[in-house]
Amino acid sequence: MTRTLKLTGVAAAALVAAGAASAQDVECPIKVGVLHSLSGTMAISETTLKDTMEMLIEKQNEAGGVLGCDLEAVVKDPASDWPLFAEKARELLTTDDVDVIFGSWTSASRKAVLPVIEELNGLFFYPVQYEGEESSKNVFYTGAAPNQQAIPAVDYFLEELGIEKFALLGTDYVYPRTTNNILESYLMDNGIAEEDIFVNYTPFGHSDWSTIVSDVQDLSADGSLVGVISTINGDANVGFYKELAAQGVDAADIPVVAFSVGEEELSGFDTSNLVGHLAAWNYFMSADTPENEEFIAQWHEYIGDDSRVTNDPMEAHYIGFNMWVNAAEEAGTTDVDAVREAMWGQEFPNLTGGTAVMNTNHHLSKPVLIGEIRADGQFDIITQTEEVPGDAWTDFLPESAPLKSDWQELECGMYNTETETCVQIKSNY
Amino acid sequence: MPRVLPIVFALVLCACAALPGTGRAQQDDAASDLQSILQTHAEEVADPGRRTVGAVIDDLVASGLPSAATFLERWADREVYLNTEDGRFYYAEDEGETYALTNIATGEPAGSAPEDAVEEIRPNGGVRRVIGSALVQFQLSDPDPAVRSDALDALARRPNAEQLAPLRNSIEGEQDPAIRARKERLAAILSARFADSTEDRIEAISSLASGLSLEARASLSQILETQQRVAESLPEDANIATELEPGSDALPAAEAYARLVDEGLAPAAQSREEIKAALTANLADGRVGGVPVGQLGTEAGRARAYAALAEAGTVPPLVTDESRAEALASHVFYLEYDEPDPAITDAARTALDEVETRVFLNQMADLGLDALSLASIYFLAAIGLAITFGVMGVINMAHGEFIMMGAYTGYVVQQIIPDYTMSLIVALPLAFAVTFGAGVALERLVIRWLYHRPLETLLATFGISIMLQQLAKNIFGTQARPLTSPGWLDGAWVVNDVIAISNIRIAIFVLALIFLALILFVLNRTRLGLEVRAVTQNPGMAGSMGINPDRINMLTFGLGSGIAGIAGVAIGLYAQVTSEMGANYIVQSFMTVVVGGVGNVWGTLAGATLIGVLQKGIEWFNPSNTLAAQTYMILFVIFFIQFRPKGIVALKGRAAGD
Amino acid sequence: MTRKTFLTENRSIFWFLLALAVFTLVVTVLSTGAGTGAISTSFVKTLGRTLCLMLVAVAMDVVWGYTGILSLGHMAFFGLGGYMIGMWLMYARTEIIVAESLAAAAIPPTPQEIHDAVGTQIFGVVGASEFPAIWFFASSFWAQMALVVLVPGILALVFGWLAFRSRVTGVYLSILTQAMTLALSLYLFQNDSGLRGNNGLSGLQNLPGLDAVPQSLVSIWFFWGSAAALAAGYLLFAWVVSGKMGSVIRGIRDNESRVRFLGYHVESYKLFVFTLTGIVAGIAGALYYPQAGIINPNEIAPIASIYLAVWVAIGGRGRLYGAAIGAGVVSLLSSWFTSGGAPDIPLGFYTIQWTDWWLVLLGVSFVAVTLLAPKGIGGLFDLMGRTHPVMPARVGGYGPDKGARRKSEGEEEK
Predict the structure, then answer these.
(1) pTM of the model
(2) Where are the transmembrane segments (chain C) (predicted)?
(3) What is the C-alpha separation between C315 and C309, in angstroms, rounded?
């Protein structure tokens, strides 16, 4: 017994020594790339994430940094321009030699960054809910996959609200398109007829919503209960919700569940007329846990404004960043491949309670929350599920159903379980 | 649902501890069995679900307790709390660290409980709807008209057969004429579906034909609900709506065949993948059905291999196009009404057709209103530009940024003056003043040096535009800023269930009219207008008549910019205020001016109307794609310019310039 | 006119080409792919793209500075060229990936299967799997290359014909071209357009079949290609704006009606210039986007074309090298400022961060250039020309306004 103990002790000491040795390989300071738009239409959402990253890095430096090094944020502004995302990512990896990048909001910008990250073997953390159908070796998806946000929300509509007719309204780009595709297929599996699903796409920054809202109201003319699933992104939401309020669309008549509207977006307008409409996320600021309280306090202190809100992608960055720090400490280096392997199975407490786990398909297991808008711009959490593992390839589209991703066992992000072949190692951009 | 778990856990614990044991709880229970009803369903009350909550509500309603209705109401309003310490339900009020509890049965204070021991119960929308319908019978004769009105809303949302009798009974004693009329309408709607005799139903149905409310249409559509069926030949006794022709739009051939397969009336067709899978499964010695694998890289090779396999009986024979056509031809597809009585469905069909014609006309009117509203927004955005561009011949690319400046002025004023009405009254003239000043400054500093170089004005003002946009970003941040409209502009003007338009849009429309009148007045009836027109037509001559062209240009430019500022406040009220909002309007505004005809206010009005109506019209044809509407609208403008290069209202003679 | 006189008459061409050759050589020697590695691959790509922008700016200068048509739509042609090359790049690369993965199955794939799988791969992102009709030629490199020239060319021809025929001129024409590029970008933003809507085409930097070649080498190839295209384009346009053709189009700029009264068919000249520059813009785009790696409809939004005009104006209209220099300087400065390369300036009470203030600076300097130095950066060469007779005199005028020099042809370059 004593001998084993001693042995383990020696082993542990050796490990520590090895860790220390490799830690010395790390070049100080460790650079962390932050790739969020600070201008353009997406700046409304992304600027906050840049601030969040700077706060997390500052806090980590106060706590002693990583592997004995200070962290340094390298911030680039890709200006809501997808090609610029690719260019800035390349700059970060080649000119600035960052060890990890946290960034992007829209899927289009992530798809633009992907080929660069894969080519240069970078490490990228993507914090926003997205449409799935992707699993890159070099990307960790800390936002929700469709089965962690869209599908539970639709289940809620079907089960709890008894909705019979759906209006899928979205901004015209990849996330709403793919999500709506998955949802259409899912709804039809659940017995909703194709003609009972109304789909509409509007451009970014759309402001003239009166006709679309009337169209939606008209859907209930056959006596069905109508629900709206909104994947409207960015500042177009302001006009949309103002029009909903103006036309008196009551949440009891036509509930709207949004996937891109959180506390941050609601701070742009008066929500007293929107009470009862819904949003589905993995985090709400109103979550009642000590971790969340501390996080909010930190945020308010950092930003110097107590009226600023926190939101889901901020939590995703919080979890992603802390996981990366722990993985780097565990790997004893910031080398991309070592950290990537150390990321699998990383656990970190959610701000909403429970523990997030990074799976080998590079998606998190997180709980799903559905909240109703309150008059003060916050959400009342009305349901919260167990942790749901993120599914890279949806089960509800026939061509994706046989696909799975496992970077540990299969070393493949797009593995066809029927033919048992790896369809592709690099992503389909 | 983990959120539920702790509650349930606590409940179980408490139930064990509290229910049989402590005397106080039992005394309360004896005093009122409301709490005990709730306790038997404790789990469901604490976390109700739409499908399961019915049992609790039935028990509560059946108990006949007077406090049950109040409880239901307050339950839906999220005023019921669970005290996890004793597992009982209370009404509670937040008092900071603690909650003040109220007994649900007696309404008397019941002490207080610490914050973390009290759980707010949050019934979701579905449950609230079920509770609402259950409450209808209590509320139909409630003394408060608002409550009666709410009850009718709940009833209209989910009409069911049981509600018909109480509704009819409540009509008699109804004093409020509006509510009484609504009750009668609802009674007709319910009778159409749930009345006992066919005559009553048909009578109710025909009375619905004259309205066009959503509720009436919903009721009629539900009577006319159909199921798609397939059979060898049309059944005699069924109430058939229509027969469907396979291969028509209503029933594409592929769908019809899939239906046959579902019913087991035809074999499933093999997809390309299935054929491939079958071939793979029968691969042996590098050959499939005698065909070498190398030849399977073509459709023809695969067909041969599959045919060979089918011949051998290892796979089902290929479903060919001929066999599919044959299967379709030997079956009939039809829609059958759920309602077995043809008399009722016929009456409902006639009534619905009549309603739908009226609905269509009303929809057109609604679309017209929307188009008018869009036109007035375009007009407001473009009229300032029409003055600077049309009257002065100056291109101001920064016009959109003046709109933005106006909107931000409105936002800043709201930060200082919290009263929305007051702040709007202050913001409108202030926005005019700010952008007037900015316009004058721009004219003095930049534009007057470039009067003879219109293309360079365009570029220089573009420089100003990107500068102003970035400055706004630096000052106000990239977040959309709220510009909240006063309460009296909330809501909408509702003509009927189809025609409605929000008050803000009406206000913008009125604003646009005011500015039209104002500008016409200034240009045609004032000294300034006369001088502006003179300078426009011949600056040199005007100068020699004692008019100072510099001053006039400055004022005209200021006026145009000032109107942009006011347009900014108006647009901010219904859409988002961001640093980029101006850019969204600039190209549209230019096109409005160009289409309308330069140098004429009426032209701008015509241009705005044309573009607004056109855009809404295209949207109506293709409702699921708003972008297409904008694209085709621009294409139209490009072609329009081909035929009327000078716009709708073209100036003639010397004023036309060139 | 012999070739010798063409070059001696326009000595600026020689100096420009010499400068370009030296620049190319220096970058090659310092590059990661073919030299010492002092310049990173991403910067080589930035420089290569800048060369493409310079080429389209030269084309813009011919349209605007020489012919007097302020086109606010030339980036539409540039983008279309990019889309055409992008379609082939995406198709060919995906086809290789798909063929490899399907080859693993027991039964060899049919051509139809490969085609369908490519469709699923490319359009899966936007929730479709069918190839739209416009992808018909995507599998053929040469057809798609021809489309790089044809699509922008035909669009420019049709649009130009419609616009010039109805004598739309001046500001109206500018707005009309702006409407064209807006309509095109809105159309491409739709998923139904078949070019993946807002996502656009991506992964274009990976050349099909050349996975083994590192990007450092690919980048230098494209850099050479862009330099060669710029040189060829510069020569072509220098030839176009010299001689009689050049005199006529400058005449159109200065007074269209007079040229018409002199018996020239003004519309044909304008249409020729408009279409030719549109084609060159398309070629520049086809070289640009494989270096950028992604193209989406935002690239042809009206703002892009306005920036193009800004570059030309800052560089100096009416002289080809001015436009090229303007595009190079402004776009490089722009990426330097926005990437945080410029140091912050602390003012004590406020720190100027250039990422926030660069656009303000650009706007102000742009207004200043328009007002105070309408000759732009190119004007500096005039100043130098006085002390160094070797430097070329300017080749063009700068606008039809009152103070513009209406020079007599043939007397200038003595």
Answers:
(1) 0.83
(2) 12-34, 46-65, 72-91, 141-164, 171-189, 220-241, 268-289, 295-313, 320-337, 357-381
(3) 10
